[in-house]
Amino acid sequence: MKYFPDRLKNARKMNGFSLQDLSDSLGNSLSKQALNRLETGELKPDGEILSRLCKALHVTLDYFFKDNSVVLEQAEFRKLQKLPLKEQEKVRSRTVDFLERCFETENLLGLNNELPFAPKSFKAKNQAEAEKAASKMRIEVLKIGKDPIFNIYEMLEETNIKVFKTTADKSFSGMSAVIGGKAGVIVFNDSREIPMVRKRFTMLHELGHLFMDLEGIEEKESERLCDAFAGAMLLPDEKVLEYFGGKRVKVYINELKMIKKYFGISLTAIMYRAKALDLVSDSYLKFFMINYNKHYKAQEFVGYEGQEESHHFVQLLVKAVAQEVITSAKAASLNNQILGDFRKMYLDNAIK
Asked: Of 124, 155, 126, which Cα lies nearest the Cα of 138?
């Protein structure tokens, strides 16, 4: 029971519950005061209490007996500040839970969980250097050349960059953190109120935070440089020049929509890329933004049909079961599922 008090508190926060909320969820079978005593270690739970807590908090029994093994370092927690405190704690706690399950699975399989680059290693002091960082990331780290990125979520996970999607108020886009000085995680908001192109941009913006050394740079400028990094990741210089052809005094919305459809980048991000390469003037960009906000902003929800999903973690679990490294019950627990559901979804069609 050494870890139980902290694990109970974390599980409560993962669900966005206050002590009273949890008591209500338990049908008041445990009072707020009793729950507080459980969290401080003054009271020890029996089997019946543990069973009720598992059901109310949507965790498996072994969750309560693990060490808190993950500490988020250099986390962009300020990005959570627009959310209510309970929502902030929910995002943080769920991120930690996700990472604990990932790292445990990788350790069981003997896999490396380090980032494919040294965190915060590319010194960037201006926009040009942020765009160079994006080029290096594309060509040397991810090895994707200049092609469009059709599934950023999967690409990042397949290259050992942890990605956790959550749902929160649209005021929160995403955040990133380093773990143990070598691993890293990107969190993005999968809310239906956020266009897919913005979610894609957010993941790459946070990748910029993980890759670039922005120490000593003011927050507003740091965010601008990560925006520049994300834009260059989505639409490399050569592609911008290819589509624009040269300096423009006029840009048609339909040509921007065609670029958006192929590269999965927002209309505004395309124009900022054009401005970065001096293909449109400051005054024309301002003119475009005024018109965009009046007439086209709502259209960001349509025009790009790509999907952002990854099955990387589940594939590791199925592999571990197939290699008899873990039981199917353990795999279900690591995926926060009951055994029957996990078997039905992933293990029923084994070829024998």
From this structure: 155
SS3 percent helix, strand, coil of the chain, rounded to 5, is: 55, 5, 35
Confidence class for position 107, pLDDT limits 50, 70, 90: very high
Instruction: Answer yes or no: are the C-beta atoms of 9 and 97 closer than 8 Å.
Output: no
Give, in words, the CATH class of 1-68. mainly alpha
In this predicted model, what pLDDT tens digit does every residue of 29-77 receive, in sequence order?
999 999 999 999 999 999 999 999 999 999 888 889 888 778 887 676 6
HEC string of 250-270 equals CCCHHHHHHHHHHHCCCHHHH
Question: The pTM is what?
Answer: 0.90
**C-alpha 241: how far from its chain's center?**
31
Q: In degrees rounded to 5, what are phi and psi of residue 213?
A: -90, 105
Whether residue 102 contacts residue 72, with contact meaning beta carbons closer than 8 Å, is answered with no
Task: Name the E strands within the chain.
Answer: 72-73, 122-123, 162-166, 174-179, 183-189, 212-213
Beta bridge partners of 189: 166
Measured distance CA(310)–CA(331) in Å, rounded: 17
- What one-character DSSP code corresponds to residue 187? E
Q: In the chain, where are the structural domains located?
A: 1-68, 122-301, 312-347
What own/partner pairs with CB < 8 Å and gap ≥ 24 does 101-108 have?
A: 101/313, 101/334, 101/335, 101/336, 102/162, 102/313, 103/69, 103/70, 103/183, 104/334, 105/313, 105/316, 105/317, 105/320, 105/334, 106/316, 108/320, 108/325, 108/326
